[in-house]
Amino acid sequence: MPRKKKKPSLWLGISLLFILLIGGTSYLVYSTWNKLHKLPYYANQPLSEFEDLKFEYVFRTHIDGVLGIDISHYQGQINWKQFDRILKDRPIEYFIVRATMGDDLDKLFASNWEALDTMSIARGAYHYYRPNQSSTEQAENFIKQVKLKKGDFRPILDIEKQSSIQSKERLREGIRNWLTIVENHYGVKPIIYTGDAFFEHVLEGHGFEDYPLWVANYNPIMEPKSDYWVIWQFSEKGRIKGIPEKVDLNLMRGGEKTLRSLLIGE
């Protein structure tokens, strides 16, 4: 007598459905990742639709805004022959590079600084402040490595983190000390770069308003929280021809007048 065929079990159906869901999700994730990571680095446009819209917004809001970028060794070795100064029909008019951090030297600073010296673009150098290290030694390190001349940006201090070994007030004392030493050496008041929230919670109301302020805020906001800013780093996902990795995009408000005020000897 022939055996009756068994119907597929419920668990088998659930298992097949689960496998199909996992496979479909994996393919979607992979294809999306592949599209993003295969975006050619020479495509001069922000990475995402949101960044693209934000770029349009900030420069529509600030018609006299001046576009600039900043980099460190994290952006990799720049192909200066391919470097394109035009981003979405706007010229890149200033280029800021990291020179030092703590008592260390950015390994690509010398080559970047030398390359920019041959270009008709305003260049600047910044120091990344390490809050647990000596502020005097950090200032001396920056001075040793960075030779500024007429037409260069004022020296720039990048302070983003609080100290894990001292109070906010002691941290502020160290920052003031760095700024004073550097100002005495170069004869100009430095620029402070920091996060919007860091300025609000650590620096604001303690005499740092006298320094030109460069704030970072990548959120979907109308304007940075601080009223003191002259430069707004509004994105960290720009794509520039000749630069392997994503770069920070900056809006300077006030046009060429503001730009000249931040340059030495201008």
Could you describe the 3D structure shown?
The protein has one domain: TIM Barrel. It is an alpha/beta fold and 266 residues long. The radius of gyration is 24 Å and the shape is globular. Helix 4 (135-145) runs parallel beside helix 5 (168-186). The longest helix has 28 residues, at 10-37. Strands 1-3-5-6-7-8-9-10 form an eight-stranded mixed beta barrel, surrounded by five helices. The protein has helices at residues 10-37, 49-61, 109-117, 135-145, 168-186, 196-203, 255-261, and strands at 66-71, 86-87, 90-101, 104-105, 122-128, 156-158, 191-195, 213-216, 229-238, 247-252. Mean pLDDT is 88; it is low at 1-6 and 29-42.
Give the DSSP E fraction (strand runs of 2 or more residues).
15-25%
Low-confidence stretches: 1-6, 29-42
Helicity level, as a percent range?
25-40%
The CATH first-level class comes to Alpha Beta
How would a textbook summarize the main sheet? 8 strands, mixed, barrel
Approximate shape: globular
Please provide the count of β strands: 10
Walk across the major sheet and give the strand order: 1-3-5-6-7-8-9-10
Count every helix, treating DSSP H or I runs of 4 or more residues as helices: 7
Average of pLDDT? 88
Q: Can you tell me the CATH architecture?
A: Alpha-Beta Barrel
User: Can you tell me the CATH topology?
Assistant: TIM Barrel
Structural class: alpha/beta
Radius of gyration: 24 Å
Note the gap between the termini: 103 Å
The string of secondary-structure elements, in order, is: HHEEEEHEHEHEHEEEH
- The CATH homologous superfamily is termed Glycosidases
Domain count: the total is 1
